[in-house]
Amino acid sequence: MATKKSKPIVATCWLAGCAGCHMSLLDIDERIVALSELVDFSVSPITDFKELPEVDIALIEGAVANEDNMEVLKDFRKKAKFLIAFGDCAIFGNLPAMRNAFTVKECLEEAFLDTESTVNPNGIIPTGEDVPKLLPKVLTVPQVVKTDYNLPGCPPDADAIWFLLTELLAGRVPEPTEIPYRDFKFD
Amino acid sequence: MATARLRVLICTGKVCEKKGASAVESALISRLVQFGLNDEIKVSTAKDCVGYCKQAPVMMIYPDNILYGKVKVEDVEEIVEEHFLKGRPVKRLIDDSLDAKDVIDNMRKSNFFKGQELRIVMENAGVINPESIDEYIGRDGYLALGKAVTEMKPEEVVDEITRSGLRGRGGGGFPTGVKWGFVAKAEGEKKYVVCNADEGDPGAFMDRNILEGDPHRIIEAMAIAGYAIGSDHGVVYCRAEYPLAIERIELAVVQAKEMGLLGDNVFETDFSFDIELRVGAGAFVCGEETALLRSIEGKRGQPTPKPPFPAISGLWGMPTLINNVETFANICPIIRKGADWFASIGTEKSRGTKVFALAGRIRNTGIVEVPMGTTLREIIFEIGGGIPDGKQFKAAQTGGPSGGCIPREHLDIPMEYDSLKEIGSMMGSGGLVVMDEDTCMVDVAKFFMEFCVSESCGKCPPCRVGTKQLYDIVDRITKGEGVIEDLEKLEELSEMMKQMSLCGLGQSAPNPILSTIRFFRNEYEDHILRKKCKSGVCQALFTSPCENACPCNVDAAGYVQLAAEGKFYEALELHRERNPLPAICGRVCHHPCMDKCRRGQTDESINIRAIKRYISNFEKELTVKPITPTKEKVAIVGTGPAGLTIAYFLAKKGYDVTIFESMPYPGGTLRFGIPAYRLPREVIDQEVKLITDLGVRIVYGVRVGLNISLDRLQELGYKAVCIAIGARVSYLLGVNGEHLAGVMGGMDFLNKVNIGFPIQVKGKRVIVVGGGNTAMDAARTALRMGAKEVRVLYRRLKEDMPALKEEIEEGINEGIKFTFLVNPVEAIGEDGHVVKMKCVRMRLGSYDDTGRRKTSVIENSEFVLDVDLVIPAIGQEPETNFAEVEKNILIDPKYRTFVVDEETHMTNIPGIFAAGDDSTGPAMAADAIGDGQVVAGAIDRYLGGDGVLWEKRKEIIPTDSYNDDNYVETRKEFEQYVLPIEERFNNSTIEDFVEVERGFSRDQIIEEARHCLHCDRASLSCTNEDI
Amino acid sequence: MKKEKITITVDGKEVAAYAGETILDAAKRAGIYIPTLCHHPLLSNTGACRMCVVKIEGTGRQNLNSSCTTPVNDGMVVTTESPEIKKMRRLNLELIFSERNHQCPFCEKSGNCELQAVAYRLGMDYVRFPFLWPKKEVDASHPDIIHDANRCMLCGRCVRSSEEVDKKGVFAIKGRGIDSDVTVNIDGRLGDTEVTKDDVAIQICPTGSLCEKGLAYSERYGERRFDMKPIEGPVEPK
Question: Checking DSSP bridges between strand A9-14 and strand A55-61, what pairing results, if any?
């Protein structure tokens, strides 16, 4: 992107999650205009870049559940100066990690064979080269790569996101306890 | 008691019992009855353990002080007839490791007992029948109690114990007298004395030994404690796993009561004391005093926070004195002989003796009692007899799962509370587990963590979850899934558990992790960064022990199994995937693979080197297609094993490789350092040809640094230059006269001879100094050149020589003379030529860190040998000056090797690498090949490649042509044809040296290979799919 | 009983205390917050959860002591908070979170949970250890109560309150180490006991392990106990 050189670049991604954290990012409402003055947005679920450039700030939503998640996350870590685990799934595993109490086989059978609503007379569990393989256990982002910040919440409160981003853009890294109490939550 | 002429004691400790002690006992009794000796010779069915378990079952004869080991029922007749009737001790039953010249009194003369002459705690061990109170009394038993209650005030007893300096033997080392004082002063309507006999450390059985062997000692001491602190009630808390100890304590209490030594009005005084026995279910945590007390109260055995300490609020909320068995075992002698006597033993802060249970990789396992402050070195090498099977000592673990490891560099640590604590271990209750080179320290940490996970009581999260998380992290590391940040995480969590856990179990549980990281960080890094377990323990990191041990990572299990199928070409291909020099290695490799071969644990290791040599014969029929270079130009300096390996792998990767060799022939040290009778020249040429056939160019007669500079090479477009010229400069002896004519370094001598330099050896007296392979090569070469006499001088003993065993044996066969325990001190010359060598004799002293004994000069032992040629072969270094001068390349000032980056293997000058002896220092050929692989990968990465040289084999090699079950039990003789001595000297020039080892036949090789146990299959059959 | 008054120093401040009381009680009276989990004023103290650890100066020991079990002595000098202590408590909290299913978004205790509230107050932004995800039974046999062992942190509050306050002795700890569990009448079901939803044991569970049925998500986000203001101490029974 050939824009003014001084603007920091922000990229976001969405691994095993529900997009709720991205919605919350949009929930900063009109402040998004101010934000777009301050930063350039690069790769994100709503853009179509084929390759991730070097970025200043990366927001990672979602847990690491399959090989694709793993690859994307490692690419982000390589190219991001400041990587934020964004939301409960990224930080704690949350809903995607509920399957960790079971084996992959049990999960797939439950999903594709055993539920009453399933009609699958040939008992096929989908596989294929273009279907990323599930990891034996769902991992959190900090388990896979070193994170520079973790912002919990399901989703993180829009005010917390705004607070964090403005602090970072001002060159400060706030302690978690500096985030206003009402905005630092696990749900 | 009737007076007996002899007394026989048969140890029936657990180990002896298992090995048939009671059968021996009954056989002996019936035999004595048969000879009518049963009055004259008293057999104590002394169910007592002397702690010499290695020789189990053991029999001791008093007053002869003879100890028979490994006694079988069949031996009884001979013992009775020869020894008891004729007075001739049976020598063959006396442990030959005991260096006693005279069999009489061998017990006291053996190192095992000599090192522990002073026994306090075990003074009655092996002497009395523990089920007889009379025998105990006969050895001053209950004298101390009598003295205490009739002659001393309670506070005097406390004072005596305090002054003795006795500290708690349970592990913590709290001053015992101070503790007694606390309880004595504490207020309570009732007070208790508790003996902690819940010994739970893996590998520790000191307390059991005391309880089983001398129960009255504990009872007496508890009564003394009761008198001192004002208690009338004692409780022995013993774990259920010690049924014999429980039985003996119960019996002893009954006996003591019968004699008025326990119960009401002890010694007819006002003092009364009773003892009850409580049996614990064997939870490790119940060794923690508060958990132990809860268990006695019938509650869940979980610790409670301190304060309040048991001294204030213990059993049933009353002041309670808790001491460990061994602590109590020290009390009576202190009262009997006085505090000053006790305080004179041991060190300033740790008085008295300590009992250790020696276990693990040590010759003499068993119980030993030594004065505090005895060094670990003395315990392991003097008393323990060192490490078996010629292995190297690696570390000792004290304090069980709560303690830490002590590495080689701390062998001289005095065994006392404070010094052990300083290095991150602890005295603990006395478990001492010895580990050798085959032990992986990460695995050790994992083992102890696993123990702590299952023994954590679960009350507090730091221990309950912390041990589990620590275990999981270490477990991942042993599986090759660790990351380097894990080390920091381990340390962080360990530190937290030490500070936050509720009781001693959790606080000390991380110690094994912290101490292994502290002393063996390199092993953790090997597992994490290089995915390598050098000890060959962590199965997930390698396919077979032989492959893991090979410095060049050759898939030995693979080619051995292919050879077993007769698939020699395939075997050769598999070998050449990782090492292009099988014929060379098949002759000169020091075969570490065979040292780790698991077959060796049952009969003999598979002769992997012989199989390698055989399959290499098929190289002659091999054709290699040249590879057209597509990548950068690389220059290698030197055609030794390292240089050839790098060239081979880089050519296969598509690089344009040129080797510069200063000599007119290839091979480097292989050719000019190793004599032709070990490695025929055509073998070298053959393998070099296969490498040049790939497209590698060798430029002969060009000495880099002399004929061409490193700068010039870089100018010519060589993107990477690797120096691999070997180490050929012999070390000097550092004695007067060594610059005389006729004194020539070992490597120097071999080089000159092999180049064809005219050196006159015929008819001369030659002295070779040193014990390594170079020394043996020089000696045997000199002999072949017609020397009148060749003598090797070595400052230690034959078994200490670092040279390959087979080389030493052949040298002896050929007539080389050896003088051991000598060192040259001066070369004496006449007209500038050496004529005499002045030497001194050496004596062996204490053990060094490698388990060899240190040498020192014997005063006035000088002697002179006549000599014409002296060859010092005590080591060599690389000739690296040229690089230092030309390009300021960093050189290690001591070893003269290149300083290279650990990861990139590059010197401080970009694009210039060093490999083999030039970076590692002098090593074996296989080590140079292994380093060549590493550097080849590094050069590839430097030039933009992935650095991957081969793929791991994934498939099992099936056993098609034979049934491997047939080869499990049996083993055939496997002898190779060796050139008869008389044919070895028929040479006129050095090129005619005939190869001594002649190899094996096809049938022999197949037969041998079929004995492989397929260790690789276990790891190959387990894949990720199973998760 | 007449209590002897003494003075101790807490975080550099002189604090009046009664002989025999715990450091925690004295600190609380002085307005100093020390995080707790297993402690409850209605119950005896066991020092199990280790959250309330403090440094007592001059003991010569390097380890920290639980303030809920350590009685004050005259002149005692105590540090309740330091970067070191904070770090230790934080690690301890992470261990507790990693042990079982302490995932807030799908827990009905969220917002009213003491474990969560302590994590907020300590600023626990992630857990550095992998979650262990054991698979425990959920006991829904009781008409009014759900017992979900997956959310238990083994603080032992239910065990103590059932015995000491409710006088029913229904709960106990079984197993050892990481396999410890709260058991009901030795492997029985809650529905077969005389426990009621008004029992203190049920009311003061600090996590979502023991919950009253029918109350799930009945309070709105923002209106729950710890949504707007940080935790000060253990929750009280209704």
Answer: parallel
Helix B681-693 vs helix B641-652: angle between axes, to the nearest 10 degrees?
20
Distance from C-alpha of B194 to C-alpha of B315, rounded to nearest angstrom? 9
- Of B661, B668, B683, which is closest to residue B585 (Cα–Cα)? B683
Domain interval for residue B264: 133-343
Predicted confidence (pLDDT) per residue in B912-934, tens digit: 999 999 998 889 999 999 999 99
Residue ranges per structural domain of chain C:
5-81, 87-212
CATH no. for C87-212: 3.30.70.20
pLDDT single digits (tens) A56-71: 999 999 999 999 999 9
Choice among B92-96, B807-811, B855-859 with the minimum mean pLDDT: B92-96
More confident residue, C63 or C51: C51
- Chains in contact with chain C (at least 3 beta-carbon pairs closer than 8 A): A, B
CB contact under 8 A, C178 and B283: no
Question: From B507, which residue of chain C is nearest by alpha-carbon distance?
Answer: C63
Q: Cβ B485–A104 below 8 Å, yes or no?
A: no
Q: The domain containing residue A41 runs over which residues?
A: 9-98+134-183
How many domains does chain A contain in total? 1
Q: Which residue has the tokens 């490193």?
A: B710
Residues in a beta bridge with C77: C9
Distance from CA of A174 to the nearest CA of C (A): 11
Q: Can you tell me whether residue C230 is helix, strand or coil?
A: coil
CB-CB under 8 Å, A146 with B485: yes
Name the residue in chain B with its Cα closest to that of A105. B1027
A16 lies within 8 A of chain C by CB: no
Name which of B157, B153, B189 is nearest B176 in CA terms: B157
Q: Which of C81, C97, C103 to mutate to test the interface with A (most CBs of A within 10 A)?
A: C103
Q: Measured between beta carbons, which residues in chain C are less than 8 angstroms from residue B496?
A: 87-88, 91-92
Determine the pLDDT at residue B4: 67
B128-180 pLDDT per residue, tens? 888 999 999 988 999 999 999 999 999 999 999 999 999 999 888 999 999 99
Task: Using the predicted structure, report yes or no on whether residue B96 has a pLDDT greater than 80.
Answer: no
C5-81: CATH topology:
Ubiquitin-like (UB roll) (3.10.20)
**Token pair for residue B247?**
């039985």
Element (H, E) at A9: strand A9-14
Tell me if B1027 and A146 make a contact (CB, 8 A cut-off): no
Evaluate whether A120 touches A152 at the Cβ level (below 8 Å).
no
Question: Does the pLDDT of residue B1026 top 50, yes or no?
Answer: no
Under an 8 A CB cutoff, do C111 and A181 touch? no
What tens digit of pLDDT does each residue of B22-54 get? Answer: 888 888 888 888 888 877 787 876 555 666 777
> Which chains reach chain A with 3 or more Cβ–Cβ distances below 8 angstroms?
B, C
| Cβ atoms of residues B577 and B645 within 8 Å | no
Size of interface B-C (CB pairs under 8 A): 110
Distance from CA of B310 to the nearest CA of C (A): 14
Boundary-marking domain end, from B503, B519, B540: B540
Mean pLDDT, residues C57-80: 91
Asked whether residue B387 falls in the same domain as residue B458, the answer is: yes
- Nearest residue in chain C measured CA to CA from B309: C70
- What is the edge-to-edge ordering of all strands in the sheet holding B697-700? B697-700, B656-661, B633-637, B718-723, B912-914
- Cβ-based contacts of C123 with chain A (< 8 Å): 175-177, 184
CATH code, domain with B536 = 3.10.20.600
pLDDT for B886 beyond 50: yes
CA of A147 vs chain B CAs: smallest distance (Å): 13
Nearest to C123 among A91, A97, A177 (CB): A177
Q: Which of C110, C119, C128 sits opposite A142 (nearest CB)?
A: C128
Task: Please work out, in degrees rounded to the nearest 5, the angle formed at the alpha carbon of residue B362 by the alpha carbons of B356 and B368.
Answer: 25
